[in-house]
Give the backbone structure.
Amino acid sequence: RALASWQVTLFGALVALGFLVAVQVRAEVPRVRYTTQERAPLVETVLELQAQQEDLKQQVLDLRARMTAAEERVAGSDQQVRDINEALLGARVAAGLVALEGPGLVLQLDDSQAPVPPGAAAADYRVSAADLRVLVDELWLAGAEAVAVNGERIVSSTAILDIGGSILVNSAYLAPPYQVAAIGPPDLYEQMSASPGFVALVADRADGFGIGLSFGQPDSVVIPAYAGAVAVRYARQPAPSPTAEP
């Protein structure tokens, strides 16, 4: 019996559908197998990458901590350097190695212009090293912070000596008039002029022999830095004063 045309068509469609289903099934099996086989290595790789990432994060945190610690150490070192520089500057100022400028006064001592009486010592009518030493001492006692004589800074090692007709201060030979400059508090002159030592100097030398003594209080006084040698070759502790109480 002859088949109807629709039956032939239906049979061909079923055969084609079966073929497509078979091809799809055969293609799905390798894909599933491939996915199953590769999953474990991929998971392992992901875990390794995550571990590396965590390690890098920890390294970053460690580096940040080290940077912070280094910055704190640098800040501490900077403060130490500043403290050392301030202490060094204080020591240089105390040693007279730094020029200073500030309020103060200038005193001038000059040889007497009075005629020397017969039989009198001409040296009594000239400014002596002792006069300068008394004046410098009285300035220190009155609160002076820095003193200079004719531009020579007075420091702990300064010697004021009579040498012939001149006065030796540090290593400089000075001639009259002698200008003694000092920096100190606003009442420096009032404090010094009221001291017994200064009163005695005025009475004995200015009034007694005509030694010229004058002073001025400029707005600003400049005290130069000490320019001599600073090395101390020998020193000893001074003997206690006989009048000092035990």
In short: DSSP finds four helices and ten strands in the chain.
